[in-house]
Structures are given as C-alpha cells and as structure tokens.
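User: Last request for today: this protein with manganese (II) ion, please.
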Amino acid sequence: MRIDLHSHSTASDGQLTPTELMMRAAEKEVDVLALTDHDTLGGLEEAAVAAKNHGVRLINGVEISCLWQALEIHVVGLNITLDHEGLNRLLAEQQSRRESRAHLMAERLEKANFPGAYEGARALAGDAPITRTHMAKWLLSQGAADSIPKVFKKFISRGNTGYAPPNWCSLKEAIAAIQQAGGVAVLAHPTRYDLSNKWVRKMIVAFADAGGDAMEVSMGQQSPQERATLGEWSKEYNLAASVGSDFHFPSPWRELGRQLWLPKEGTPVWTRFI
Ligand code: AMP
Ligand code: MN
Ligand code: MN
Ligand code: MN
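Assistant: Here's the final one, the structure of the complex with manganese (II) ion:
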C-alpha cells in the first residue's frame, strides 16, 4: 500500500488544486494521501469529492506553524475532524497572524525598493492564507533573483531585509488543538530546519514533552543514513513514525508517494487511523 501523509494544494502554497492533487495521487498509485495545507482546512472539502472520484483515501490534515526557541517549527495534524471549534479558532488566529506578517514583510520589502509586495502576494494566494512562498513568487516576478530558493536566501529568510518574525502559536497549543479535534500530532520534517543534530534532538524532546504523538521519519528525498537515524530517534523518544513527501508542485526531484518507506525501527503512525 502506498501512503503519503504530507502534501499541499492551492488552498495554501501548493501549485495544484485539491482536485488536481487527488488526480495526481491516483496517477502515481498512492492509496492514502493526507492533504496538509499551512494553517487551513480550506482545501479538504474539494479534496474529499475528488478523492472519492479517483479512488484515493483522503486523510484530513493540516500543517500548523509554531514557535519554539524563536524557531519556526511545523506540526502536522492527521485525521482531524473538520468542525472542531478549538482547532478552527486556532487556525483563524494563525491566519490573522499570517495577514499581519505579510503586511510587515511588505513594509520591509518596500524599503528595499519592492513596493506592492502585499498586493502581489495576495493576488497569487487568491483566497488562501499568504505564505512566504507567495511572497517569493511575487519577488521572482519582479526580478529580485532568478529562482525561488535564491529569493528565499536573499530576501525572506530569517535575518534578511524582508523577513518579519512571526507570532505563531506554541507547540503545546498546536498539539492540543489537533488532539482535541481527534487527530494525531506529527513533528514535520525534523531535518529541514537547518539545525545541528544536538538541536534536532532537543526539538524532538520538546515536541514529545508537549504531548506530540509522532515524527516524520521518511521524507522521500533523503539519505539512507538520515532515514535510519530518524527511525532510531522516533523509537528512543517514543514517537510513532510518519511518512510524507511534502509535495508542493510537480518536479523531477519530489513526487507524491515516492520513496516513503520506513526503516524497521519505526512504528507506523497510520495504524492509528487506517
Ligand atoms: P511560511 O509558513 O509563510 O513561513 O512559508 C514557509 C513555506 O515556504 C514552506 O512551507 C516552504 O513551502 C517554503 N519555503 C521555505 N523555505 C524555502 C526555501 N529555502 N526555498 C523554497 N521554498 C521555501
Ligand atoms: Mn509550504
Ligand atoms: Mn513544513
Ligand atoms: Mn509542508
């Protein structure tokens, strides 16, 4: 069975609509796909219809941005109910924090000679909450740099001119809201925060202490060594193991459901809801 528990659609910063995403999942023979857009459940209704039409099992998910030690850490919620009041309240707060941050970033970018960043990012996001990906795409269109990663590196990463520190919720708040909505809380991509191994472990400990259930062990594009180490850490800290491509757009290097096996150390998180 092919399982992928982390992906994005146009409801946040993904390139495919929820319907297109489900079609692609079917094409790539993914049996179970979680849609986990940033701080929103906005794509899940459409995804449910498409999933049914294309024979994919949809897991309702979300990816919540949190602050821990002044770092932006992402927590994925899997198998949540859509109408839980507490979770929806938290996501509404997160969305309003995204709005404030986008305005703040735009003010800073204006001083760096890029006026109109808020309007530009808003137009690209449509109804979705604005993410830095939208800011980056707009900056790219203005010739700020010649690729999205370079725009991030030069303008909107921590410490850059256009970066504004966000005001996200805590790990504890995100984990509690996910669990109260019947879901499982997963620490997203532990090795993608640019931290030393010592700090990755500290982060995993903090996540487990805050009541987290699982961590991503398999992310597709990673070394065998990384996968094995994450498997061992999941066991050591008593967290279940999750698998997710974090798919945002079609590309040769990242695909739905691709290379998402778990090392033997990992206890699969999906046994809790599949
Ligand atoms: P935000 O949650 O608004 O801070 O936006 C974060 C999103 O930006 C992530 O989910 C990624 O999709 C994207 N992102 C972050 N860093 C990079 C990078 N260096 N290159 C390309 N995309 C990035
Ligand atoms: Mn993203
Ligand atoms: Mn993430
Ligand atoms: Mn993601």
